[in-house]
Amino acid sequence: MEQRAVNSSALVQEFVVANRLGIHARVAAQIARVACRFESEVLMTKCGITVNGKSILDLMTLICPYGSKVHVSAKGSDAAEALNELAALFQTKFGEP
Amino acid sequence: MNNHPSLTIKGTGASPGIAIGKAYLLERGQIPVPSYRLFGDEAVADECRRFEEAVAKAESDLEAIKESISSEFKEHARLLEVQQMILRDPSIYDESLRYIEKDRSNAQLAVIKSLRKARELFNGLNDEYAKSRIEDVNAAGDRVIRILAGQNHTNLEDIRERAILIAHDLTPADAIQFQVGRILGVVTEIGGITSHTSIVARSLNIPAVVAAENAARLISTGDILIVDGGTGKIIINPSERDLSFYYERQDELEAYIKQISRHAHLPAVTRDAHRVGAEANIELLEEVVAAKDNGAEAIGLYRTEFFFMNRMELPDEEAIYKDYRDLAELMAPCQVTIRTLDAGADKLTSWFPRLEETNPSLGLRSIRLCLHYKELFKTQLRAILRAGAIAGNIRLMLPMVSGMGEVFQTKNILKEVQSDLSRKRIPFDQNMPFGVMIEVPAAVAMADLLAHEVDFFSIGTNDLIQYTIGIDRSNEHVAYLYEPLHPGVLRFIKQAVDAGHQAGIPVSLCGEMAGEPMYVPILLGLKIDSFSMNPTSLPRVKNLIRRSSMKECCRFANNVLRMSTAQEINQSLRKMVMKKFPEEFRVFEPNWLGEEPVLANRGSAKTNRDTE
Questions:
Q1: What is the mean pLDDT of residues B415-433?
Q2: Under a CB-based contact definition with an 8 Å cutoff, are residues B214 and B200 in contact?
Q3: Parallel, antiparallel, or unpaired for β A69-75 and A41-46?
Q4: A49 CB near a chain B CB, below 8 Å?
Q5: What's this model's pTM, rounded to 2 decimal places?
C-alpha cells in the first residue's frame, strides 16, 4: 500500500437509493465495476454495516431497497474521482426507473 | 455400431419430427470434488496459477455465450455479466486463493470452501430476492469447478458436430443457444411439453423428447440414437432395420409436412363449408413469425407468465405495455387474446413472500393470485388496455375462473383502471372483449351464468382434465388416469360449448387437445368455434379440418358422448381417423390411441401423453 493512500483521510458522501428496485444484482454489478476501476478503497455503509464497495456479493447482501440511505466512502489517491463517478451512478438511478 | 445392444426408452414427445444421429451428453450432474493438501511452495504456486487460469477461462466462456445470445434475450446476457463479476469478487476469488495458499487446499476444494462461506452469508439474509441470488453465485462457482475438473464442454457453443443433445435438464439460457442445423434433436430427463426447452424446440422445428427418465444415464456421447419427437420414443444403438425404417419414416414425414404446409395459409373450412378459427398459443414475441408461417389466423392464447418470471426484477408497466403493443402491432388486424398472469405463488418468490402451500395447484394461483396482489394485477391490466388502443385487436382473458365472484371483482378493478386511464388522458381500448377460461369443473357448472357476463369462453383442457378427474398428471402413479377422452371431460366440454352458444358467445379451445390432429373429429363435432394450439401443430390440424365433414363429425361426437369409457372412445376414434385420414395416421403413428384393439395397453400407451 502506498504511503499517501494510507495517510489521506477518507471522503464520504451520503446517497439515497432512488431507483424503484433498489440495489439488486445488476446494480450491484455496476457499482462494483466502477469501484474496481480505482485504486482507492471504497466502502459502503448502511445502518451501521460496512461492506467492500468493490465486491458485488457484499453489495448484494447489504440489501438496499428503494429509499435506503447509504454512505459511500473512498480512501486513497484517486478517492475524489471514485466518489464522483459513484455519485453519478446514484444520481442517474443506475439508468433505471 | 451394433456392438452394444439396442435399447428403447420412452419419454414425452415434445416437438414432433424424427432425429437420427450421434448423441452429445451434456453433463451437469454432481461432479466428484477431489480434496487433498498441497506439498511444497511450488505446488501451491502451481495450484494458484491453475485456479487463476480456470477463472479466466470461465470468464471468457461467459463472454462467448453472451456474444452468441440474440438481442431478444438481453436479460439473460445481463445475468451472465453478474456471474462474471462474481468470479472476480474478493469473497470468491481472493478467498479461494487464500485457501490454496494458507490451508494448502487444492483449487476445487478452495472454491467449494469459499462458496460455502458465501452460501452461509446469503442464507442469513432476510430478503427473498437477495437470498435467491445465491443461484448466480452457485452458477459461477460451478463453472470454475467444472473447468478445474477438466469438464470444459458445458457450453452448447462447443458442440461442433451435428448431434442430438442429451441432458438432465436445460435452462432457458441453454435453450436460447440451440442452433438449428447443429442440434438435430433434444432429449431431457425432466420437463414437460410446456417447459421452455420444448417451446423453443418446437419453434425451431427441432425434434424433442422430454421426461425421458434415465436418458442421461443410459446414453453416452457418441451413441447412435433415433429420437421420435412425436411418440416420445428413443432408440439407443438401433439395429440396421430400425435405422432404415426410421430413415424412411423421416423422409415420408418431411414430404408429408412439406405438402400440408403448402396449404397452411388456407382457412380452416370443412368439406361442408363450416368454418372454424385456427389460432396459435405463444409465450414469446419471437414466436409470432412461426405462428404466421404455420397459418395462424390469430393468437388465441398469449401466455404472459414467461415475461414475468425470467427476470430479476418485477417488470414495470412500460415494459409490459411495450411487449403487448409490439405483439398487437405484429398481429394486426388479427386478434390477440392475452391471458393475465397464470402462475402460482411459487413463481413470484423473487418479489413476494414465499407461502407455505401444501397443495399449490389448489392454492393461491392464477386469477386468485392476481386478485390477491392487486397492484401487480392492475399494472398488467393497464398495460393490456393501453396496448388495445393500438389496433383494437386485443382480447382480455382470465385464467382459472371458478365462479361469478372473480368476474365481478375483476370487472370492478377494470373499471378503476379504466377511469384512472381516462383521467390521465392515456388512450386505451374501451371496448376490449373480456373472456374467461373454462378450466375448473365449477366454471363448467356455472357456464350458463358466466356466459352472460363475458364476451367469450376459452376451454383450457390441460387443467380441466386434471381438475375434473382429480389427478396430478405429473404424479407417475396416477398419470395413466390423465385421459383427454374421458367421457366426463367430453361431457364438460360439450356443456361449456352449449352454454356459450346459447348466450351467443364464441367458445374456443386452447389446451393441448386442440393441437392434437387426431382429436379434430371429436372437437369439431362438439362444435368448438376455434382451435388454439402450438404453432407447429397448425398445418396438420388445419389439413384435417379441411378434410373433415362437419356432418360426419357431429354424428361421430354424438355417438362418442354415449360411450362409457375412455378406452371405448379411443378405439372408436382410432377407427375413425384410420378410415378418414389414412395418410396422416400412417405417418404419425399415434400409439397413444392404443396399438391394437385390446384393453391391456392403457399403462404404456397413456403415460407418455400426460404432460401437456
A1: 96
A2: no
A3: antiparallel
A4: no
A5: 0.63
